[in-house]
Every structure is written in C-alpha cells, then in structure tokens.
Amino acid sequence: MPYVNIKITREGATPEQKAELIRGTTQLLVDVLGKNPRTTVVVIDEVDTDNWGIGGETVTVLRQQG
Amino acid sequence: MPYVNIKITREGATPEQKAELIRGTTQLLVDVLGKNPRTTVVVIDEVDTDNWGIGGETVTVLRQQG
Amino acid sequence: MPYVNIKITREGATPEQKAELIRGTTQLLVDVLGKNPRTTVVVIDEVDTDNWGIGGETVTVLRQQG
Amino acid sequence: MPYVNIKITREGATPEQKAELIRGTTQLLVDVLGKNPRTTVVVIDEVDTDNWGIGGETVTVLRQQG
Amino acid sequence: MPYVNIKITREGATPEQKAELIRGTTQLLVDVLGKNPRTTVVVIDEVDTDNWGIGGETVTVLRQQG
Amino acid sequence: MPYVNIKITREGATPEQKAELIRGTTQLLVDVLGKNPRTTVVVIDEVDTDNWGIGGETVTVLRQQG
C-alpha cells in the first residue's frame, strides 16, 4: 500500500524510462518490505528547470553554465 | 487551516467537478473537525497517465489493457 | 486510484474523526469523479503547532493569542 | 540538505521571480539553521487557478468576484 | 538531483530496510535516467495505521479484519 | 495564498528557529510575488536521520562518518 512520489526535472524522460522507474520502485518495495504491489502507487512529477533550484540557483542557469 | 492535496490522473475532470471536490473536501473538514473553511486550502494535481503507476504498470498501459 | 494527503495540526483528532475523514474523502471521489474506492488512498499528516505557520506566525503563538 | 516545495497559483511568475524565491529560501535555511546550500533543493509548483481552492471556492471564481 | 518521497505505514521497518530503500531508489535513478546520486534525495515517511486509508477504511481496521 | 513545505532532518531545530523559517518564508513571498501573508501557509516536517537519504546513504550513516 505504499505511495511513492518521484520528482525529476522535465528534460526528456521517455514513457519507457518512466515505466521502468515505476516498475523498479514497486519491485523494490516488494523485495525490501514485502509490500503488496497491487496497491503500490508511484507518481512521477516532471518539473521545469526554471522551477527547480539547487545550491540557490535554478537548474536552467546551472545547465547554461555547463 | 488544513491543507489538502488531491492527486488524480489527467483524464478530463471538468472545472465544475474540480470545484465540487474543493467544496466537498472543505465542508468535510468543517463537519468532522470544526475547521475554519476560510483558511482551508485544497490543491488538485492532475497527473499524466504515463506518470502514474499502480501495480508496477503505468495507467497508460492499464487503460489500453482495458 | 486517487491519492489524497490531508494535513492538519496535531490538536487531538480522534481515530474516529480520522476514519470519518478517510471515508468522506473517498466517497467524494466516487461521487464526483466515479473513482474506484478500492485503490483510493488517503494519508493524514498531523503536524505540531510549532511547525505550522499562517500569516507568518506559528499556530502555537496564534493559539496563545486566542 | 533541506528540501522545500513552494506551491503558488500559475498567474505569471517570471523566471527571475522564481529564481529569487529559490535564492531567498536557500539563504534563509543557511541563515537560520546553518544548512549547506549546495544540497538544498527548492521545487516550485505552479497550479492552475481552477485547481486551487480556498474557503471552498476555486481561485478562478475568487478572481472573477474581485 | 531527483527528490523521492516514499510513504509507508509505520509497522516496524528497520533502519537496515530503510537504508536499503534509499540505496535501491537512488541506484534506480542512476540506472534508468543517469541521474547524479550525490544530489539525489530520498525521504521516507512512516505513517500511523490510523492515519492511512485505502478503500475508505483505515489500515488499523483492515489489519483487525485480517 | 501560497503553500510552502519545508523538510529538514530532525536534529534539534528550536521553536524559535522554526518560527523564524515561517516568518522569513512568508515575507519572501510577499516581497517577491506580492502574495497575501494572511493566507500563506508554511508547514515544516522534521524527518528522522534514518529516514533521510542523500547519495544513497542515510544521514545517520553520513553523520557517523563525519
């Protein structure tokens, strides 16, 4: 019955990659805690690089600085 | 003063339905806990079906399987 | 398949009141959007009044001011 | 290492304003708690006014009422 | 730079199991999306069974019903 | 009307420090975006170091390694 929220920057993750994150996270909860996969929910949020900051800078700026 | 976050898949909820969720949730907190509706906040997130997983599968795939 | 997170201050909500919030929210999603209640998840977070602010003040201070 | 999530209505915040929120929040955590800014993450969610409710009404409706 | 929040019921997960969830989730984001593990944050919330509902019932009640 | 959630590790933040985070964050939203402080909500979550991971390690382990 776990609920997992994964937040990543919106930089081109494909539907296949997102499906793999969902599959992998669900399996991890089965393997580590014996959780029921049927009621395990995983929600992925993709966030614009203007809206994500680390070290006080937006990712937009960090990407430009290389 | 409660804060409520409702996450649903983005599958065509109308503005009227979303207004009804906001009204209903706020009223529930008044009725059950006597909360002040004026500072009760409800935020609805609509999530793409590619980004929502249950049972290790994306909702996109589950909808295709019917 | 919705996921709902309700945040309230920790000020003595009883198990019965919390069960009523869970029941009511789940029913609301059935009534308004036709969601499947069996996979609808509701999580309630109770937050210390020192850790909740509104209007720039903690709820602890607001309660003292009456 | 803190994580901050700021939710605002989507009503035209500019990239500069969002960068300022990220910078200011990160600095606040340095000043108040001595946190390491390099691993401080700030994520801003902009939410449609149809999806944000306060006082049981959507912000869309509240804006129309002035 | 991803942020992951895992919510589970508070039912005795050990520090080792939680460390394994953190390790596994971080590795998954490296493997699937090539994310930098050094800035990948995972936060686990353990929620009382009275505060977690599924199917309109608290987990406390569901556990009693077996 | 913004909502801000600040997550920090539970390592002894005082009520005064938490009040300062709430005051500072609220003021930042007034200064940068002209938001109404009276409906600005700030919630602080303090998370056990066993439940917070960065770089694939729990903060408990990182603190031991100095």
Largest interface: A-E, 25 and 25 residues
Domain count of chain A, please report it.
Answer: 1
Structural class of chain A: alpha+beta
Q: What best-fitting shape of chain A do the alpha-carbon axes yield? A: elongated
| CATH class category name of chain A | Alpha Beta
Q: Give the ordered list of helices and strands of chain A.
A: EHEEEH
Number of helices of chain A: 2
Total number of β-strand segments of chain A? 4
Largest sheet of chain A: 2 strands, parallel
Mean pLDDT of chain A, to the nearest integer, reads: 97
User: Strand order, biggest sheet of chain A?
Assistant: 1-2
Oligomer: homohexamer
Helix content of chain A: 25-40%
